[in-house]
Amino acid sequence: MDPLNGEDSVRGYNLLKPLGRIIYFGAANVAASGENRSLLTAFKTWYKCFSTNSLSILSDNKSIAGYHLGYLLKYFDSGKEIALKTIDELFRLYNEGAIKPQIDSIYPLSKVGEAMQRMHNRQNIGKILLQPDDEANATKNNDTTTE
After folding, report:
1. Does residue 74 sit within a domain?
2. Structure confidence by residue, pLDDT tens digits, 55-96
3. CB 96: neighbour CB atoms within 10 A?
4. Does the keyword Oxidoreductase apply (predicted)?
5. For residues 101 and 126, what is the distance between their CA atoms, to the nearest angstrom?
């Protein structure tokens, strides 16, 4: 599963073994931010994205899929139902310990700005969680990052 896309999508595809599958569900490396935001930067990023054709996929014996929640909800009548079933399944897998999300940091809700800045600066590796202030104060370690 690839949340990065961009240049990394080529590496991800090349790492697949025969009959391997890759699912693109994000584009963290495609979205330019800050001073890098320009039409030229957007074009360079798009140009470096993975591109292939059906015959190559067939001869490589690999599978490619994509998932965009926003489009699913907006353009498909059954999008909401599919999304709710998927969320239920994810919670089931999480509760069984089959999936373990990587947590980068936990911030009290009152410091949402700091959490957003950390994400905007792409300093996080994993999820940034927000916690109601009373719960955050009750935690043993008030350190907001796991660095």
Report:
1. yes
2. 999 999 999 998 888 888 888 888 889 989 989 999 999 999
3. 8
4. yes
5. 7
Q: Which residue has the tokens 């800045």?
A: 117
Which phi-psi region, left, alpha or beta, contains residue 122 (left: φ > 0; alpha: ψ -120 to 50)?
A: left
Six-digit token string for 47: 């140009």
Computed on alpha carbons and rounded to an integer, the radius of gyration of the chain in Å comes to 19
Residues 45 and 107 in one domain: no
Q: How far apart are CA 114 and CA 104, in angstroms?
A: 13
Q: pTM score > 0.85 for this model?
A: no
What the block records as the tokens of 39 is 């039409």
Taking alpha carbons only, the member of 113, 101, 99, 100 closest to residue 144 is 113
pLDDT in tens, 111-147: 999 999 999 898 999 999 999 988 656 654 555 554 4
Please count the residues of the chain.
Answer: 147
- The domain in which residue 125 lies consists of 103-138
